[in-house]
Amino acid sequence: IDQLKTMGASCDWDRERFTMEPAMNKSVMEIFNIWFEKGYIYRDWKIVNWDPKAQTTLSNEEVIRKEVQSNLYYIKYQIKGTDEFATIATTRPETIMGDTAICVHPSDTRYTHLIGKTVIVPMVNREVPIITDGYIDLEFGTGMLKVTPAHDTNDYEIGQRHHLETVDCFNADGTISEAGQIFVGEDRFVVRKKVAKLLEEQGLLIKTEQIRNNVG
């Protein structure tokens, strides 16, 4: 309100109301339902900035981004029906349980022979397709991206374009959900280390290297 006044908005400030006042809130709820019934608004899965501690969503403007030192994990995904593996690099191995595709750039000749094939997601043994999308950075990691639509904004967009399944492997408090299948109920950062150890034991973790990356 102070910002509006500073900018010179010529409103009748004596009539100022807050949408959470009982009378106002009732009107908001009524209109919301009317619009929903008419199909003007709808319910759908969308990716948001979620604060597990405060249990609320945040706007992009409220997210503080900073560069941090992270581990980049190189992980093997077996090509179904073969002894061949695809190698994917990720900073968030705790989201592997939510993978629903592997994506490569359409012009990347290294992986042309793999397009359309199926890989087995480590630990949860989910079969997912290898798809192509122009978003992929050929220079980052191995040029192959594990797509987890529920846990990354860009992955979400890829998922929408390719009609991928959305598997949300986190609970609202940042612990692993039932959909994650393993380490259920454990904190995501604890699980990151456990997943890396399990992958190493299974011979699927090739190497780990340190990088600088931007996180919210």
Uncertain ranges: none
Q: Quick check: average pLDDT?
A: 93
Question: For the terminal residues, how far apart are their CA atoms?
Answer: 28 Å
Tally the beta strands.
9
* Rg result: 22 Å
Shape: elongated
Order of helices and strands: HHEEEEEEEEHHE
State the oligomer.
single chain
How many helical elements? Answer: 4
- Helical/strand content category: alpha+beta
Helical fraction equals 10-25%
Q: Report strand %.
A: 25-35%
Tell me about the largest β-sheet: 7 strands, mixed
List the helices and strands and how they pair.
Blueprint: H1 2-6, H2 22-38, E1 49-51, E2 56-58, E3 66-79, E4 85-90, E5 101-104, E6 118-120, E7 127-132, E8 144-147, H3 153-162, H4 188-201, E9 205-215
Keywords:
216 residues; alpha+beta; 7-stranded mixed sheet; two-stranded antiparallel ribbon; 4 helices; 9 strands; 21% helix; 25% strand; elongated
Q: What would your notes on this structure say?
A:
- The protein is α+β, with helices and mostly antiparallel strands and 216 residues long.
- The chain has four helices and nine strands; from the N terminus they run H-H-E-E-E-E-E-E-E-E-H-H-E.
- The chain has helices at 2-6, 22-38, 153-162, 188-201; strands at 49-51, 56-58, 66-79, 85-90, 101-104, 118-120, 127-132, 144-147, 205-215.
- The strands form two sheets. Strands 3, 4, 5, 6, 7, 8 and 9 form a seven-stranded mixed beta sheet that branches. Strands 1-2 form a two-stranded antiparallel ribbon.
- Strand 1 and strand 2 (56-58) form a beta hairpin.
- The longest helix has 17 residues, at 22-38.
- The radius of gyration is 22 Å and the shape is elongated.
- The two termini are 28 Å apart.
